[in-house]
Amino acid sequence: MKRSFIREILEAIDEETISFAGGLPSEKLFPAEDIKIATLKAMENPKIYQYGISNGINELRTQIAARYTKEGFPTTKDNVLITTGSQQAMYILAKYFEDKDITIEEPSYLGAMNIFRLNHLKMEGVKLENDGVNVEAFENSFKNTKLTYLIPDFQNPSATTYSDEKREKIADIIKKYDGILIEDSPYGELFFDKKNVSMSSKLPKNSFHLGSFSKTLVPSLRIGWIRADEELLKSLMIIKESIDLHSCGISQYILTEYLKDEKKYEKHLQDIRDDYEKKANFFSEQLNLIMPEFKHEKPKGGMFLYGTFGDGIDTFALVQECLKKKVVYVPGNQFYIDKIPNGEIRFNYTHSTFEQIEKGIKLIKSCL
Ligand code: PMP
């Protein structure tokens, strides 16, 4: 195994470097004042300092469940397990499915691929098209693995979002083979146009739906969750207990306080969507203006813009040059199982200022 290129890059770069590499939310959108108020309120509750139950505090699980139910996916707190970020949710699931074969999208989330390797899952990649995985290739792989990890909303890295039609087709295949879906959706709320219907809602008995507050509120609280059928969730408890007994109680009580004011949270989500949409549009415009040889689609949500120069360019080699000029991105080959160099790049557009976006793209162009 190798460490994640992204985490290593984040450690290596200095303050001056323009980074399009990490999946960092915009700092100016953290609701710091409201989190402070929620924290002070939460601190008055003596329970905040005590050990808690492994599946998470009831109030927070109930709040999360209510959001699913409101969206038409009936859910109670017994369907929700709180985890230490959705990263831990994936770790728990990978441990549970240790040694199995798993169908994944290619490209896919680097952090998940590393967890799968660590737990000896054998990954089979299926090519992503611009409206989701290729359905035929998916069925060919899934009929053998009967287990899949998908990111259908504004995927990391490719920003791809599944069409309604593909969501139906993929869910039907999972049902046909009575397999399991792990649906990872940390970006589902960051839509510019409309919220998508989760694939898991079509497969309530055969799915694990992963959520997180990292991209919608603050990542440092490290709170995510798994939504699943009650019986399926029970089978994960021994793993969760073995890892950390329970996720941080202080973080959970702070979130519970914050989420009590639903309207405030909704407004905050809308502010993020508005800001990110402007950034995504600007990033795409600047690319077209400064570096038109980089082919891409304008994102419809999430935090990433993905595209390619075509096969003639090795973006892994290019990033070494870019580093010297103090600009960095993630080369696309990092998101593939075999990591063979290619012409693809993932850009994060949420963390940089408009000036940094323009300057950074000009620097990359000069290295090109
Ligand atoms: N899944 C995906 C697709 C991600 O992009 C990330 C974060 N980059 C995670 C899971 C993990 O997020 P967290 O642990 O902060 O919830």
From TrEMBL:
Keywords, A to Z?
Answer: Aminotransferase, Pyridoxal phosphate, Transferase
Which InterPro entries does this UniProt record tie to the protein? Aminotransferase_I/II_large, Class-I_PLP-dep_aminotransf, PyrdxlP-dep_Trfase, PyrdxlP-dep_Trfase_major, PyrdxlP-dep_Trfase_small
Required co-factors = pyridoxal 5'-phosphate
| Annotated ranges, domain Aminotransferase class I/classII large | 29-362
Query: Molecular function (GO) terms listed?
Result: pyridoxal phosphate binding; transaminase activity
The GO biological-process annotations, alphabetized, read as: alpha-amino acid metabolic process
Q: Which Pfam families match?
A: Aminotran_1_2
- What is the name of this protein? PLP-dependent aminotransferase
**Native source species:** Arcobacter aquimarinus
